Amino acid sequence: MAKYSKLEDGTILTVKKSNQISKKIKLIAIAAISFVTLGLLCSFFFMKDPVIKQGYIDNTEHRFNDTIGKYTFMTHMQRYPFDKALEAIKSGNEAEIAGYRSLILDYLFEFNRQTPSVIPDLSCKKPVFKATCSEPIFSGKRDSPAKIGLLIQFGFEVDTLLIILHQYRDLVDKIFILESTRTHFKNTKKPLVWERLKYSPEFLPFSDMVVHLVVDDAPLAAASDDMWQMERYQEHQRWSKFVEWNKDTKYFTDSDLLGFGDADEVPSLNVLTELKNCKFRDEIFVVDVGIWFPMGTIYQAFRTDFPVEFTLPYTLGDPTFYTLAGAMKGGVPSRQRGTSAHHILGGMHMSNYCYLPTILLKDMTCTECGMFDKDNLQLMKERFFSNDSQVIQKWQQERCSVSHWGTRIIDVQQLDNNNRQAVSVPWYLECNKGMFPSWEHLPDSRLL
Ligand SMILES: *[C@@H]1O[C@H](CO)[C@@H](O)[C@H](O)[C@H]1NC(C)=O
Ligand SMILES: *[C@@H]1O[C@H](CO)[C@@H](O)[C@H](O)[C@H]1NC(C)=O
Fold first, then answer.
1. Which domain holds residue 243?
2. Which ligand 2 atom minimizes the distance to the CA of 78?
3. pTM of the entire structure?
């Protein structure tokens, strides 16, 4: 720093006396020196920061282009530098490990983003429901339909996003997708998924419906090692960004509805139709949706930890809908997991979706688990290099097994009439089961 300012002062002094040519040369020299100094300063700050630190990886020889169609999932993943990643893990160099962890997300995402190769059945149309307003939470029909906003956290569930956007069209007016440039787990860099999807033909029709909220690197630099802190932080951000958006647009008014949940907590068309057209009784401002939790295939039902009431053990009490006035009452509104005093039934928790690239991405990023270790990476490498699609199929089946849940999972046919009211498959999935065969634990042609 000292050297640089001295040089700058000195140069400016001499410039005054010198001719035009040497003035130019000196200006160029100043620019060059400033550039180098700035660069050094920047890298110095980067190195000092315990969170942003991430090893540079020369990936030139492994770069992929036109992956889709040219490579199978297996041959694509064979190009990930497994050996170098394993070396980095062995050496314990955290910055390098972070680099390879981030890189595998990018590799997996390349297949996760591929929309299904099966063409949607255009003759299968979205059903239209008529509101009855007969649920006890309602006092009657609204004079005009409410606007509905849905605020969701989003990770990597591209197939789920396609299904829910079809589900919500014409019923949900705005869907606020909160994404972060870093994962919950060790703040690893990750792609912003909506940014990469929004111009693709499947997603373009929904671009007016989606409001993209992004948590960028700046606040995350301050994140601590507490993995849950980031989730709480994101909930907070989701709300404050919404409030800011609505203050400017004035799009939602007091009696409109806001839903809070994860991308995979999907209310039925019937529930959305009722919420949109019916008036809550005066004292009610928050309602949970009791949804069915099939845990990976549409033929099952899971006894959840967060039912809407004890007689409905096979429901999960999310998402949660508030009137805007109710949500503004104070604090940060969020999903209530069945603890709200009121509920309405119908929907599907699209969790445990068994498409291998999505599962592996979740393994690599989820808050509770860190699967980027030597044993797991070695196993992945062996499987990807087996050149045997059966191995991939078996791997998927093994990862999707729910046998450890034992009797908490029953056949969906065994549900009693009350619990069965919550069961509802999103219409786009119902019409296009062939596009999403993992929901029936069948092989997905994208992986063959
Ligand atoms: C990527 O594209 C470049 C230029 O089109 C080509 O030379 C290269 O071989 C491609 N790489 C792969 C792995 O396909
Ligand atoms: C699978 O194919 C790759 C080349 O794509 C090769 O390097 C590897 O040895 C093969 N694995 C087996 C088990 O044959």
1. 138-287+316-347
2. 5
3. 0.81
